[in-house]
Amino acid sequence: MVTAQQEPDTTDVTAAVEALREALMAAKIVLPSLRADRASPSLNLIRPGASRRRYPAR
């Protein structure tokens, strides 16, 4: 959790996005829009974006 005294660490969220992308690819799930959420950088959230139509139905 980021408090008022802490600076958000974009390296951590970027690494998390890449690790999540690799794990999803290993499961043959592709989220081409997977990225860090730019709307709230202090929260270090990840936006899943869109997926190919057949994957959400799995």
Explain this structure to me?
The chain has one helix at 10-26; strands at residues 35-36, 46-47. With 58 residues, it is mainly alpha-helical. The protein starts with 9 loop residues before the first helix and ends in an 11-residue tail after the last strand. The protein has a domain at 10-47. It is built from 1 helix and 2 strands. A two-stranded antiparallel sheet has the order 1-2. The model has no long low-confidence stretch (mean pLDDT 77).
How many E strands? 2
Low-confidence stretches: none
Give the N-to-C terminal Cα separation.
32 Å
Instruction: Kindly report the spatial arrangement of strands forming the biggest sheet.
Output: 1-2
Q: Tell me, rounded to a whole number, the average pLDDT.
A: 77
- Give the radius of gyration: 13 Å
Q: What can be said about the biggest beta sheet?
A: 2 strands, antiparallel
Helix content: 25-40%
What fraction of the residues are assigned to beta strands by DSSP?
Answer: 5-15%
Structural class: mainly alpha
Give a short synopsis of this structure.
With 58 residues, the chain is mainly alpha-helical. The chain is 29% helix and 7% strand.
Keywords summarizing the entry:
58 residues, mainly alpha
Which helices and strands appear, and what pairs or packs with what?
Blueprint: H1 10-26, E1 35-36, E2 46-47
Antiparallel strand pairs: 1-2
